[in-house]
Design goal:
Elements (H helix, E strand, L loop, with lengths): L1 E5 L3 H12 L3 E5 L3 H8 L10 H10 L3 E4 L2 H4 L5 E4 L14 H13 L4 E5 L7 H16 L5 E5 L9 H6 L4 E5 L2 H10 L1 H5 L4 E4 L1 H32 L3 H9 L20 H14 L5 H14 L1 H10 L6 E5 L14 H11 L3 E5 L4 H8 L4 E2 L3 H5 L4 E4 L11 H7 L4 E4 L6 H5 L4 E3 L5
Parallel strand pairs: 1-2, 1-4, 2-3, 4-5, 5-6, 7-8, 9-10, 9-12, 10-11, 12-13, 13-14
Antiparallel strand pairs: 6-7
Helix pairs in contact: 1-3, 5-6, 10-12, 10-13, 12-13
Length: 437
């Protein structure tokens, strides 16, 4: 089976490589000629464990190829997946410029039945916009060609995307007719054979499922952070509370880890877009508004703890451990680290940073505003305080004695609650965390 995937960002490239691994013939399309040239040379533009090897294997097998022209391959494939970016626009809604461009190209070039599948995260109702654009382009050509629209939202976690794709909790597919359903059933047959859940539904429900899922996960994070902040005030231990409520089968333990807030390309954008969708339909998403407000406050909590511990940040040297919004990625989009660093610099602190993967991305974003360490211990040299912001494995078991010797001060702020307070304090360091005494 032959398919095309437009967009070679995180979703498009991972999806393309994984579909190829399952036996499909995949052409990945991107208008960025330099990116396509790099991909053809084996250079992967994003960091995702196992992706480089997966791409190389399927390129070598002839199942995965790259091009800048959808027009060249569109009539050789049975489905075109739209996996382009939908960044937030000025009012919080999703910018559909790239999605609309794909629809226009699709309508201008198909000459036989084809399915246009939206894999990008788009607001409910986008399928109607896409369908209208395709029909408009067909009418301009005077062409009477059948097509159908489908929605296949992604549920990939950065850092575990390949596993998520190959062994999904569920696959959600919205279709408008039997022809598109049959195409999608053929493509996802390997998953059906493996007894993974493939859930077919109408397209608006599929579009809403993506936003509802991310909003629920964001809600759990903000909820436990709210509880953690109350725990600090009352003397309770949020880790104990988390275990207590997580043992309830109705609640479960996932996404109940307190910290310094969520970031990344999905949760912040999708929460805003869901609120915008509600507003467009005259409905206020009150719970989701609170989720966003709590998260914005939580991103500032490490900076507040540093200032409280040090008295002032002016002239202080602060070492930062972790820059990416989560481990196993170099993605710094809306990462808590950016909020913390901005606060420290505004208060007159000197900042030295280290992340095992995201240093190039930090240089691209911040340039020489911060100093760059060679490892976590280098970031602590002559520091008045160190703050952990991303729970990479390399940060899990530090030598606190060695850190104490190289530091000028004695403050450690654990923004992810991964350390044991007694172990840190035993070396004469002052330990601050989230929601624990």
């Amino acid at each position: 089976m032959k398919i095309a995937i437009v967009g070679t960002g995180y979703v498009g490239l991972v999806s393309g490589a994984c579909f190829a691994e399952m036996g499909a013939m995949v052409t990945c399309v991107d208008i960025d000629a330099e990116k396509i040239k790099a991909l053809r040379s084996g250079v992967i533009p994003i960091y995702e464990p196992g992706l480089k090897e997966l791409v190389e294997r399927n390129v070598s097998a002839g199942r995965l190829s790259f091009t800048t022209s959808l027009e060249e391959c569109i009539n050789d494939v049975e489905a075109v997946f739209c996996a382009v970016g939908t960044p937030p626009d000025d009012d919080g809604g999703a910018d559909l410029t790239a999605v609309k461009s794909v629809a226009r190209t699709f309508g201008r070039n198909i000459n036989k039945f084809n399915v246009l599948v939206t894999k990008s995260t788009v607001p409910v109702g986008t399928s109607e916009i896409v369908r209208a654009i395709v029909r408009e382009e067909l009418e301009k050509r005077g062409a009477d060609i059948d097509f159908e629209i489908a929605s296949n939202p992604e549920f990939l976690k950065e850092g575990a995307a390949i596993k998520d794709f190959m062994s999904p909790d569920r696959v959600v597919i919205g279709v408008e007719g039997e022809r598109s359903r049959k195409v999608m059933e053929r493509l996802y047959r390997p998953f059906l054979l493996s007894n993974f859940r493939v859930i077919f539904m109408d397209i608006p429900s599929a579009e809403m499922t993506k936003y509802a899922a991310n909003a629920m996960l964001a809600t759990r994070i903000s909820f436990i952070n709210d509880i953690a902040n109350l725990c600090e005030l009352t003397g309770a231990d949020v880790n104990m509370v988390r275990k207590g409520i997580g043992a309830d089968a109705r609640i479960g333990s996932k996404f109940l880890y307190p910290g310094c807030g969520y970031g990344g390309s999905c949760f912040p954008k999708d929460v805003k877009a869901l609120m915008r969708t509600g507003a467009e339909h005259g409905y206020r998403m009150r719970v989701i508004e609170a989720v966003e407000a709590v998260n914005e406050d939580q991103k500032a909590i490490v900076g507040k703890k540093l200032k409280k511990a040090l008295g002032t940040l002016q002239g202080k040297r602060i070492g930062i451990w972790g820059l990416a919004f989560k481990p196993e990625t170099d993605d710094m989009r809306l990462a808590p680290a950016l909020t913390v660093i901005d606060t420290l610099l505004a208060e007159g602190a000197e900042v030295i940073v280290y992340d095992p993967v995201a240093m190039p991305e930090c240089r691209r974003r911040l340039g020489d505003k911060v100093r760059y360490a060679k490892d976590m211990y280098d970031a602590a040299v002559d520091a008045d305080a160190v703050a952990l912001l991303t729970e990479w494995k390399v940060f899990r078991i530090p030598s606190w004695g060695a850190i104490k010797k190289v530091m000028r001060g004695d403050v450690v702020v654990d923004g992810r609650n991964i350390y044991t307070p007694g172990e840190v304090a035993a070396e004469g360091l002052r330990y601050y965390c989230i929601g624990r005494p």
